[in-house]
Design a protein that fits this description.
Largest sheet: 9 strands, mixed
Distance between the termini: 32 Å
Strand content: 15-25%
Order of helices and strands: EHEEHEHEHEHHEEEHH
Oligomer: single chain
Number of strands: 9
Strand order of the largest sheet: 3-2-1-4-5-6-7-8-9
Shape: globular
Helix content: 25-40%
Length: 263
């Protein structure tokens, strides 16, 4: 299950999650928390879904489907953060929280008033949390402009949810040829390095990586191996990204091993 916002441009959010689930061979369901008017150039508008209807979507799914893992993405408002936290309180399957705070284009996707609820109510329920450097800075109040900054901020982040594993993503750092993410799990911090793909088609990378992890944890893949496979999948999706979808920061190609993108 993905609990997230809808991206009208199809590259991130619910749309990216469902494509990624399908690419990993698992069946995806969705709870939509917000409608967005966006394209490859940015977010033009956000319309939050009423919290009660978010709960109704969730209850409809758990009443009929065997949900094996849940990914949480964009929530937007304090009411939605609190609602989703309440829904997840009794859940025992893996819960992957991608703390979506600001879009790649710089549009704020979570109300400032909701950040405290995210930190105090939702993160303590997570199995795995996947912040990028901008999100890590927001969560900890520390600057994260370098790999040294990222490493220095990890302990402050872990203190927010010590029960969870954390994947600290380094894709926004200025490393020209590689991307290093750090997995904190059971007291250990392990680097996972991969190549940096030379492309501007990076819309939806965070959603896609978290969804790839969710799909694998749903079927019991060990966490470290899931991180390796998710990073490899993301690299392949970036390498296969079409160059002619939109005029801004384009989307990935979520099925790199099958049908190629149309010309």
């Amino acid at each position: 299950m993905t609990i997230a916002g809808s991206d009208s441009g199809g590259g991130a959010g619910i749309q990216a999650d469902l494509k990624t689930f399908a690419a990993f061979g698992v069946y995806g369901t969705s709870v939509i928390t917000a409608l967005t008017a966006q394209n490859t150039q940015g977010v033009l508008g956000i319309h939050p879904v009423p919290a009660a209807f978010v709960g109704q979507q969730y209850q409809a799914l758990v009443a009929d489907f065997d949900i094996r893992a849940i990914k949480v993405g964009m929530l937007g408002t304090q009411a939605l953060v609190e609602t989703v936290a309440e829904l997840l309180r009794e859940v025992t399957c893996p819960r992957i929280v991608d703390p979506v705070l600001v879009s790649t284009s710089g549009h704020r996707l979570l109300e400032p008033a909701a950040e405290n609820a995210l930190k105090t109510q939702l993160l303590p329920l997570a199995t795995l949390i996947t912040p990028n450097t901008d999100e890590l800075a927001c969560l900890t109040g520390l600057p994260v402009a370098s790999e040294a900054d990222l490493l220095a901020a990890t302990s402050a982040a872990v203190a927010l949810a010590p029960q969870a594993a954390w994947l600290f993503k380094g894709g926004h750092l200025a490393s020209p040829t590689t991307v290093t993410d750090y997995l904190y799990h059971q007291g250990n911090l392990t680097p996972f390095q991969g190549p940096r793909v030379a492309t501007t088609a990076t819309h939806g990378t965070g959603c896609t990586l978290a969804a790839a992890l969710t799909a694998q944890l749903a079927v019991g893949v060990p966490l470290a191996h899931a991180v390796e496979q998710a990073k490899a999948y993301l690299v392949a999706a970036l390498e296969a990204a079409p160059a002619n979808v939109g005029t801004g920061q384009g989307p990935l190609w979520h099925f790199p091993s099958s049908t190629p993108p149309l010309p």
